[in-house]
## 1
Amino acid sequence: MTNKLKYFIANWKMYGDLKSLKSINKVINFVNSNKKKKIQIIYCPPYTLLYPFSKKIKNTYLELGAQNCHPNFEYGAFTGSVNPRMIKSIGAKYVIIGHSENRANGDTDQIVNKKIHSALKSNLTVIFCMGETLAQKRKKIAMNTLKIQIKKGLKGLKRNSKIIFAYEPIWSIGTGLIPNNPDLLKNIIFIKKFLKKVIKFKNIKVIYGGSVSPNNIKVLNAIDEIDGYLIGGSSQNSKKLIDIVKKTFK
Ligand code: PGA
């Protein structure tokens, strides 16, 4: 049982078309009938669905975010790219930056840093992803990896910029595996302390991502320090998403 505000970020990845929009009706109804609970659901569909989503969720309690952005704040000749100003202009308020699937496609810490600056300048709230690989976990250098990602990713930022931090161990994304609770708690606390001490952030929100499902949410939610969840696979199924939210507040 929790009384804290919890974020549920639905990362649809490269799934979904106009027909899938109908599936969120259930979630809209659910949130409307649970107004007193501190639930913040943020949908992050592919770029192609951002505008229809923004129309769909207007006057609901749902929010909208993009899954990535181009590092440039200015418009320019970047074929196939979308910058944070464009994302903001259609009514989205959030953007995921530094997701491991994009880091694997070439997003270095420096690029991540540039994207964050540009997104904040566009007045978007950043969902900043970090996490270690299985090899790094085995070598017991997970915390060091997180430290580097945080330091380089946040370089030059003002204290208390609008950022939600997402801890996503890479080995748990899409695998059905989740960290054991002592390890997860240790890493969440480490991230919060490091941000507070070194970067002097206050009121830090750290969410967890990686194979979150209705089957493991109770176990994860035993950790009160977790401020919400970044949900991939399970978020494309409204029933599963609602189940996750319900179990968080039970
Ligand atoms: P998953 O994805 O829930 O399918 O593991 C999470 C993510 O990549 O953000």
Note: The mean pLDDT is 95.
## 2
Amino acid sequence: MHFQWYPGHMTKARRMMQENIKLIDIVVELVDARIPYSSKNPDIDQLAQNKYRLIILNKVDMADPELTDLWEAYYKEKGFYVARVNSQKGSGIREVKKLIEQAVKEKKDRDKKRGILNRPVRAMVAGIPNVGKSTFINSFAGKAAAKTGNKPGVTKGKQWIKINKNVELLDTPGILWPKFEDQAVGLRLALIGSIREEILNTSEMAVELIDFLKKEYPGAIFSRYNVEEEGSAHMILEEIARVRGCLMRGSQVDIEKAGLLLLDEFRSLRLGRISLERPDIDSR
Ligand code: G4P
């Protein structure tokens, strides 16, 4: 599902988050492992004050494993629980459950000291659109989630999915809004295909991607297209168009078509597992 964001959307999403977050103890925040910075919403830090925080690096199957290692360490150092997950395949879900158990244990110990009796810990999944929230919930809650789904009318009140005797999950994820004011963020979200907003046209996006690949993944373009990585990104795109037969009438190269081809191939991992951000100054 794609979202067109406008201020009304954002206000509504924020209000929902503010309401729901009051009810919960743990925020399970999904980010895309290829762009853990750009797919993260900074407002959540304020909204989720005093909550346990678990960051899920989702879609790890698409990301560069070495960079995922760095991001995992980065967020751990900041005090988050962190898990790397492929929600489609369900890998990493066991680790998520283990981490939540840790948080539950901490919480229960704290509650006990204050004389609060046993009560289940409540969790909520949150993230920007397309980061994989529904897929994650299905994987995480399995049959329990399937049972509660598709019941129009019943969803008026809050629905809690019982994960086990200690943990309940809110069945509707919190939708967060991306940081659209930052151009670089918009570009990366568009490159991975997570937003439809046309911040640039296709060939311009492809040119940006080529510049990035030349620098961060030298050899990736050459090994896929047999095109030398010298000269400007625009020239390289023209060459890809030629090699792949993206031509207009009169045998002029069609760089829009070549751009689309490159973006498609990047998104479907034909260029390998590539992450667009590393946890250093560049990505902030
Ligand atoms: P959302 O609720 O946060 O909006 O995301 P949703 O679960 O709908 O997932 C968005 C897309 O990402 C889905 O693709 C889903 O299958 C895919 N996805 C989710 N988790 C993972 C993962 O860990 N690895 C990979 N490779 N993909 C994942 P879609 O519906 O098939 O296609 P499309 O319409 O987005 O192209």
Note: The mean pLDDT is 90.
## 3
Amino acid sequence: MGTSVSVDGQITAFPLLRGQKALVTGANSGIGKATAIGLGRMGADVVVNYVADRDAAEKVVQEIESLGVRAYAHEADVSSEDQVVGMVSRMVEELGTIDILVANAGLQRDAPLTDMTVDQWHKVLDVNLTGQFLCAREAAKEFLRRGVVPEVSSSAGKIICMSSVHQIIPWAGHVNYAASKGGVLMLMQTLAQELAPHRIRVNAVAPGAIRTPINRSAWDTPEAEASLLSLIPYRRVGEPEDIARAVAVLASDLLDYVVGSTLYVDGGMTLFPGFATGG
Ligand code: BGC
């Protein structure tokens, strides 16, 4: 067993997750797509969850299958209890179990406080926070039922919550999103405390500014990108594969003793870059 990262930044040739079954929510685009493919590259079979755009999800499935592992697409709204229950029970039927949950599905509905509607508030909390709760609950039931299978993994299951630097950085004009990610931090830590005695590892990955459709306006003109880069000490915008690699390693037994942690993958965005010259 060995690891290597090729020059194009892709994970290559090491089935660290061989035999494991992963569910990635919101996997038809952006960070979720790269993560689903990254886990497939590490040897996992992958369920590609999506809520809209079946064609995009099927393309991700084809790309994962071309790596020699199993995959299928499953439409479900993570904020719907029935749909999440159905998604996890189908996965147990079709793939036998679930070893890794990447609770990634998330969205933004931005507005200044005084313009924000209660629908915008609820939509973001429902998907970003309730969605992670529901997926974690259903995955944990299966982890507890099955227990540890030492040939597959040292732990009974791994939950990786996709958070954000905004779990700790306040963000004016995005109070629904920042509140949802602050909630994800405490959801993750509480579940980690509750489930660790059962050998279930719960952790989070907190991306900074990653080049995906969710924040296109922040990087798709030179002026916007220059302003964004002033918030990133490492002076590059992140790529979805930066997050995929972090998730894959966190899900593997290489990090078996990491429980209840947040791995910030943000080029230093959480280092208060304004203080590099001020304060
Ligand atoms: C948000 C992006 C934003 C980034 C850094 C992410 O969680 O979804 O829109 O660019 O945080 O602020």
Note: Residues 4-265 form a domain with the Rossmann fold fold (CATH 3.40.50.720).
## 4
Amino acid sequence: MENLESIILPGLSDKKPLIIAGPCSAETEEQVLTTAKELAANGVKIFRAGIWKPRTKPGGFEGVGIEGLDWLKKVKAETGMYVATEVANKAHVEAALAAGVDILWIGARTSANPFAMQEIADALVGADTVVLVKNPVNPDLELWIGAMQRIYNAGIRKLGAIHRGFSSYGKHLYRNMPQWHIPIELSRRMPNLPILCDPSHIGGKRELVAPIAQQAMDMGFDGLIIESHCDPDCAWSDKSQQVTPDVLNYILNMLVIRDTKQTTENLTLLRQQIDQIDNELLEILNKRMRVSREIGQYKKEHSMQIVQTDRYGDILKSRIKLAEEMGMSGDFMKDVLVSIHEESVRQQIEVFNNRIK
Ligand code: PEP
Ligand code: MN
């Protein structure tokens, strides 16, 4: 995998960032063509649309299937754009290649499955197409690399990666946690591999597309794949994260593209890491307060007093010891813990007074 070529698409390979845009799903011929024409008018050169949609639960919209390939052919014929779609098995690969789809991407649920990856790789032998592999849903860099190796071993050289974030349990600011250190490590291990960012699936919300896209540009990603729909509110899938072609154009125009690939030493990158860590800290603190209130409720129901000094003493002692083992100052950890404890007690008092649950 050392000598990966860059994605080769005539006239596009030297242009940074590479932009792929289009709806989450192809829904109707009209929606596909309207969206594609609006995107093309805004200068987008590569159109995406999912035809086979992996859904978490049965019963949802699972894509229009091969019918949609004819719509993609029309997009090519009428706009001159390159077209991209997701493939998840041998039959998808064969149908997409036969229809002249320029770029195949492999989704996060598929790249997590080595059997599916091998089946796709086998179906790709002899093809001269661009293949983009999204990270697996779980934050496992080796699994991601393994998925790409299977495609590479099948003879595909126009290979790239898409960072779409990693799923995690519970409610978070992001739909899929960016965990930027994982694509950064991928880039360190495979410096020639083009890596695109998918801010739509990371953020899960329209308003997060622009800041995540900017972050990706600041970190030196090679391109962006962004969901765009002619009428996002009526989209059949992922409606809250899709933007209109005009909004997409605005977002792309606002992006600040820096020339040099930034390194981990770079201040911007380090500050972004701090922002990310602070978000995680806030979420963790919030979770702790929630559990604390549940404890307050329990104590109330069992007529126990709020402050249990033995428990508090144990917490202080064990956490301070752990912090010191990690190389942090014990005094600092004591201040943090005292302050967290104060707030926990305050919240439990509120529960006792029936002000919150
Ligand atoms: C998609 O791109 O529409 C998609 C299903 O993405 P992911 O595999 O990243 O969830
Ligand atoms: Mn989607």
Note: The pocket of phosphoenolpyruvate (ligand 1) is lined by residues 24, 50, 107-108, 134, 164, 201 (CB under 6 Å).
